[in-house]
Amino acid sequence: xxxxxxxxPPAPPALNPDQxxxxxxxxxxxxxxxxxxxxxxxxxxxxxxxxxxRQLAERLRTESEPTATLVAPLLRxxxxxxxxxxxxxxxxxxxxxxxxxxxxxGTTELPxxxxxxxxEPSVSALTVTQWLHSVxxxxxxxxxxxxxxxxxxxxxxxxxxxxxxxxxxxxxxxSPMVRDLLGDFALYDAARRFLGLNDFLELHAILIRSGERxxxxxxQSVIVREIANGTYGNEPQGAEGAPERATxxxxxxxxxxxxxxxxxxxxxxxxxxxxxxxxxxxxxxxAGLSGTGKTRLTRLFADFLTGAASDRYLLVPVxxxxxxxxxxxxxxxxxxDRYVSTPFLDLLRTAGQPENRDRAFFVCxxxxxxxxTEHYFAEVLSAMETDDGVIPLQEGRSVRLPVNVFLTGSxxxxxATHTLSRKVLDRANTLEFVRVDLDRRPKxxxxxxxxxxxxxxxxxxxxxxVRTVAAAEERLSAPNSSYGDRIVDTLSELNGWLTPxxxxxxxxxxxxxLRFVAASISIERTGLLVPEPEANLxxxxxxxxxxxxxxxxxxxxxxxAGLLATIEGWxxxxxxxxxxxxxxxxxxxxxxxxxxxxxxx
Length: 601
Description:
By secondary structure, the protein is of the alpha/beta class. It has helices at about 15-30, 35-60, 70-80, 95-105, 110-115, 125-135, 145-150, 155-170, 175-195, 200-210, 220-230, 250-260, 270-280, 295-305, 325-330, 345-350, 375, 380-385, 420-425, 455-465, 470-475, 485-500, 505-520, 535-550, 555-575, 575-595; strands spanning about 285-290, 315, 330-335, 340, 360-365, 390, 400, 405-410, 430-435, 555, 595.
């Protein structure tokens, strides 16, 4: 079978001075930074992997009939090299072997081959680029959102790249997805040529690690100030090459599509609810079945905002023997007479440095309830409620809980875990992961709705934070001046049902619900859960009752079954569908177990 004759056009879109400077700095950091030796070793290992992949691919090319037996080792090798979970055993079929060989070495034009390969189940543009790059790293880049954002193409460059792709592959008519993908190839080739690199493997290595270099995001600081002053997006766009202003609605849309492009699926509105929850308060609980992506979600979200910067995400496995805060916050060693720090404490100190005030840091406390949360996390929980955020340490020391640190705890409910007290539940939004649809596959979607650079992503996220009741009332009054009163009236009515059974909530829960509903309204005054304001208000209140109120309800079936039935009927009348469904499940489960609990597993 002949080799692929397609290559890149001779003149991709030119880069502007800002892009050239950014790429040069990324290359210099990769080659000369403090982790340069690690990067070189990583690149060498990846080259070995791609050599193995090419050898396996040659067998697929030269055999007379492509079969599942030939494609199986190739799938395993590419999955190991790319981390793409879709390269799994479901692809070990004769049909996929034929489709893959046609993509890599077919005799028709490249656009037609890509179009045909995209018709395979659950194949996305990302999967296409990973296959092409893995076999032909000198000719095709792996197009990923985090590396494309480093190039940061302007609107004019994107348009020119797409036109260029269409011109190059005439007379073939390109579908929008194939046109966009070939346009991205041209943009990556412009970056490769500017940096003087021989292949796209080294370019990918430079781009993927660029987020780790120390730098001050001046552009991000400017955007945050503009959002705070109410001037963001008010000025004219300026020159043709100026980047288009992104909106917060664009941001959450890109979040959903990037997560889908990476092969992960979550229940409807889960990503948006997690996003809004962190905006309202930087502490979220993810509860439910093991293996449903709770911990992975925290990493996906951090990568989405920070560009996969390894120093700005920390996974803390909670140990069952944590009876105090020493495992999390360190301790004074009497033998050596020095304070023994921890990765969590180090992250708090790093995030609190002045140069990092506009950079987001994320922490996941994995299996948070393996130990009693109130024992090892008490100081942090208390600091969340103070204005200065001071966390006391041993020997009279202290550290601040910076406002740019976002905490998430994953919890499972089984015989090896502890229940969470209301002190913990009141201070967090609880998102539940219990609905599993094994037949649901990731959708084939374009790489992103639009391109948003990482500084701008963080700026939009920071600019949309709602941390005080005053800020919440101001945001709520934007679409309708009555929203604040309507929320409080709804909560008062609900508390009226809860109080006779001793399940009522206090002022903190009320204020945090106000902040969540306000945070569900974008800085452009549109809904982030549902675009239409009234529907968004209903959806936000529904989620807050589900995430803030129902987790607190626990007790005997005799005492609470009637209350749950009342809440179910009340929620149904108000179109709070999530609340009504959960109340019904709690009531039915209580009938079987004799005890009411929010947590189903």
